[in-house]
Amino acid sequence: VAARPAPYLEGLNPAQRAAVEVLDGPVLMLAGAGTGKTRALTTRIAHLLMLGRARPGQLLAVTFTNKAAREMKTRIARLLGDTVEGMPWLGTFHSISVKILRRHAEMIGRDGLHLKPSFTILDTDDQIRLLKQLIQAENIDEKRWPARQLAHLIDGWKNRCIGPGSLPRGEGEAFDGHGGKLYAAYQDRLLTLNAVDFGDLLMHCVTLFQAHPDVLRQWQERFRYILVDEYQDTNVAQYMWLRLLAQAHRNICCVGDDDQSIYGWRGAEVGNILRFEKDFPGAEVIRLEQNYRSTPQILGAASGLIAANQGRLGKTLWTDAEPGEPVRLIGHWDSEAEARWIGEEIEAFQGGHRAALGRVGLDDIAILVRASHQMRAFEDRFMTIGLPYRVIGGPRFYERQEIRDAMAYFRLVVSPDDDLAFERIVNTPKRGLGDKALQTIQHAARQNGVNLLEGARIVVEEKQLGGKGLANLRDFVGLIGRSHMAVRDGVGHVELAERVLDESGYTTMWQTDKSPDAPGRLDNLKELVKALEEFENLQGFLEHVSLVMDRDDGEQTEQVSIMTLHGAKGLEFPVVFLPGWEDGLFPNQRAMDEQGTKGLEEERRLAYVGITRAERLATITFAGNRRLYGQWQSALPSRFIDELPEEHVEVLTPPGLYGGGYGAAMAMAGGTRMEERVQKADVYNSPGWKRMQARAADRRGPVHRTPVTIDAAPASRFTVGDRVLHAKFGEGQIIGIAEETLTVQFEAGFKNIKAAYVQPAGG
Ligand code: ATP
Ligand code: MG
């Protein structure tokens, strides 16, 4: 090794260098966003290898996502050139645990029931299916005690490394008294199937290490140095895993930021940071304070916001970066207008309108949303204007399971020949029509040379199935048949779509589902129905979607990134948009309703993560109206907006805010009261803002702010022939009334619209 410091060390500041050069013993790097934690960690790996402290295979580095692992690999390779052969063990807790478990699979299990090295890893769907079978076998009412809830419970236990044999008193009584028993049965079943679920990967490893000291020793000797990024989001099982592996040599370096702990809802414990110094006495604690990522304005806004959290470890952050633009804040009429404006902004960047920012390519831009259902508006808008985008860390909106299911219903309504759609939904929700029933239907269809739907009708008529399945199939065929007629009779497609999802039991399936992702799926379904409104009919909508789906993703072209705030952890982009900053969405309703401030503080940390992703320009937007849970609600700007330090924020006026469309819409939305609330154009001067500031000052804990529903107009107010005003379609004439639904002739064509969404024209 050369006497001169290696070139890769030269760019580091003294604190970072210390973090790299303190080679032995425990190191805890605790520092704010963008201070170069990940960079120091990566350099430390390179340094250990260059000094020959360890061979690549003797280094273990844990990242939070596979994407982060890939990035780290590339960076290390760049730092090292071709001086070192091989690569460290670099991956997520899960991916590394799989590798370890495969080597000792036979040691997992009991009484002659053991894993084999070829074990499979179940996905959530498989897991749920298995749990359902067990619940049924116990004769438990599956409606009241859904499998997803049990899955959630079991995941929670596994996150804490609690096996069925060691459940704390009382916890096994969860799930109507059957929790513990079902958990044990489930674990046995997994062994029989030679399978593990995600939570098992960690728990089995820990159990293995605890039960077999020789095995543990072997791995302790192998991994001479352990490095962990995003340490603040480890859960108990992961912490135990790390502690076991690091106990002997204590060469463990963890980096994290308590202000960025955002996985508490998944069992992560910030407390692990505090425990570190206890479990590894004498740990070198290194604090980094210089932020290299963002402008002073971005940093100032983020720091001001996070200061509202109690019980932080507390950190100083500074930057000597050139001053940039303030964080921009802008409100819009609704989520569509928000997406439209962001699309226009991005196009303006492309046109070079912001010379001060330098060149901004599409790859430099990210849109970070709180909830995945927000993505749809952006995807549709960007499709329309031909702006390349990619959705990171999750399927695109139209590829999600619930959306594909719902679309299959629509497809079958539009086109009875769509056998694929039929197969997808005939037993979703469960109608007791499994593989055998499907075979009967397929057989009947083939015999008669008809599509599956016709085949099903024949099966029903000839009673080729027994019992409940037959009755359910009759209902299903009947529903689709009625829907075909409804299309012919000109029933509005939005109403029809809602009816199909309701009457088929599909919506109920998710409503009764107690899993944590069920509310999100219901939101997505609502969002889907909302998307329908923009089209003349189902057919037109389905065509649009196939176009969205078909767009080719040529990796070589630059794309705007759309992702959730959770998925953006550790990443950075020159330009960041943060849409949907409204109470109820961000912070989300659950956090606002909760007793105490725990949930709210986690949401605030998420906001901090969001702002600190930006290097040069951050823009926060919110909409005055958003459809949540199926109805339009006027929303208040997020309470987090109150908390941004005014000196770092610039409030923008959306173009055309006071134009005819907006004025008319305002009038419809209930006059000045509403206008005042949605006066984002001049947020800081509006009385609403002042009131909110005053309230923020004495706010302790969550404040309930019930969103106001836009004044509803009962259908009885109207008669055929009346002229009405609609926010989107403008003025039109009523040509039909069916209960709460009006058929209105607008310039754009006939629309079926809920009476609540229109106002008498001129009234
Ligand atoms: P986060 O908390 O968001 O994960 P972090 O602390 O891991 O942030 P990094 O991603 O490592 O921060 O670094 C942020 C940016 O600052 C990167 O672009 C990195 O290359 C740059 N950077 C880090 N250290 C230095 C340095 N000493 N000199 C110049 N740039 C640096
Ligand atoms: Mg990082």
From TrEMBL:
Q: Name one GO cellular component term.
A: cytosol
Give every UvrD-like helicase ATP-binding domain span: 10-295
GO MF annotation, one: ATP binding
GO BP of this protein = recombinational repair
Limits of the UvrD-like helicase C-terminal domain: 296-570
**Xref: SUPFAM superfamilies:** P-loop containing nucleoside triphosphate hydrolases
Q: What is its EC number?
A: 5.6.2.4
Q: Where are the transmembrane segments?
A: none
Q: Name the reaction it catalyses.
A: ATP + H2O = ADP + phosphate + H(+); Couples ATP hydrolysis with the unwinding of duplex DNA by translocating in the 3'-5' direction
Question: Residues that bind ATP, according to the entry?
Answer: 31-38
**Mind listing the UniProt keywords for this protein, alphabetically?**
ATP-binding, DNA-binding, Helicase, Hydrolase, Isomerase, Nucleotide-binding
Superkingdom of origin: Bacteria
**What is the recorded function of this protein according to its Swiss-Prot or TrEMBL entry?**
Has both ATPase and helicase activities. Unwinds DNA duplexes with 3' to 5' polarity with respect to the bound strand and initiates unwinding most effectively when a single-stranded region is present. Involved in the post-incision events of nucleotide excision repair and methyl-directed mismatch repair.
Q: What name does the UniProt record give this protein?
A: DNA 3'-5' helicase
Q: Which organism is it from?
A: Paracoccus gahaiensis
Higher taxonomy: Bacteria, Pseudomonadati, Pseudomonadota, Alphaproteobacteria, Rhodobacterales
